[in-house]
Amino acid sequence: MSSMMPAGGQLDEIEREFGQEPIGKHMLWAVGFHVLLVGAGVAFALLNGLFPHNSWGGANDGAIAVQLVSSALPLPADHKPNDNVLATETPSEAPAPPAPKAKATVDESAIPIATKMQELKKPAQKKQEASKAKPAIPPPVAKTAPRVQPPPKPDARAQYGEQASTQMARAVQPTITSANGQVAVTAGSRGFNYPYYVEGIQRKVLQNIDRNQVDARTPKGTRAYIIFTVRRDGTLTGIKMDKSSGSPTLDQACLRAAGRVDTFGPLPSPPTDGPLSVSYYCENN
Q: What is the C-alpha separation between 131 and 124, in angstroms, rounded?
């Protein structure tokens, strides 16, 4: 094992080779070299900016040639071009603004001449003035008082030898008649507003007329008027002639027809209205 160990002189040589060498001298040289390199770059940049490129070397050494092309792409327009306008490189000049119109001078000494329009306007103005004029109000006409004719004198004479007509239609009390006017009824101050009862009076008296008792020589349409009173219970009283027909046989037939009626039924009106006054006529058919 001792034979494998190096000798003492070899150990010293190895230590010198692997021993630490001083780096201070080499570091200073490296730093100085880099400083010089950076300074040379800065000086070149400054000189390149101060002098033109063609001052260095030949005329075309290191130069870049640029050629402008006229067919470059156009920039987008702000508005749509008008296809109806012919584009030209030399546009025409804008037209000059029109000269202001000279004001017409009016000759104050000239005599005005009426035109046709003025002549047509005159009738229209006259019509407007006539329409605006207030219409004349005629003077008031004095009113004359109407002549009052005296009422006719009532005829109190009896006809055909009978008593005068009672003229029930002139009564102050309201009157109601049948559909054909054959029966006229009055009762109370409010009237007798029961048409069905009035129709019943007409029907019952008409059923009791004996046409065989009437003289055949009596004219058609002859009428005999009788009057009677209907009590509250419906019975008849006070049957008599009101207006003769001129035919005694027709008058008697009419009176007997009313006398054959036993009752018309109780009155439907209030008891305060009292009995019913009836006027009835018999007509020869």
A: 11
- What pairs with residue 241 in β-bridges? 226
Cα–Cα distance list, 168 to 186, 189, 248, 273 (Å): 8, 14, 23, 17
Dist. CA 160–CA 251, nearest whole Å: 12
Query: Closest Cα partner for 189 from 278, 265, 269?
Result: 269
Residue 170: the pLDDT is: 47
Cβ neighbour number for residue 240 with a 10 Å cutoff: 12
Per CATH, is 172-283 categorized as 3.30.750.24? no
Mean pLDDT by 10 residues, the chain (285 residues): 54 61 71 86 78 50 57 61 62 74 69 60 67 67 68 57 47 70 84 90 92 91 94 93 93 93 92 91 90
The pLDDT value recorded for residue 233 is 94
Phi-psi label, residue 21: left if phi above 0, alpha if psi -120 to 50, beta otherwise: beta
**Based on the number of CB atoms within 10 Å of its own CB, is 267 exposed (0-12), middle (13-18) or buried (19 or more)?**
buried
Token pair 């018309």 in the structure block, residue? 264
Residues whose CB is less than 8 angstroms from the CB of residue 187 and which lie 6 or more positions away in sequence, other chains included: 173, 267, 269, 273, 274, 275, 276, 277
Confidence (pLDDT) at 4: 53
What are the phi and psi torsion angles at 251 (to 5°)?
Answer: -65, -45
Angle at 109 between CA 106 and CA 113, to 5 degrees: 75
161 backbone φψ class: left, alpha, beta (φ>0; ψ -120 to 50):
left
278 touches 185 (CB < 8 A) = yes
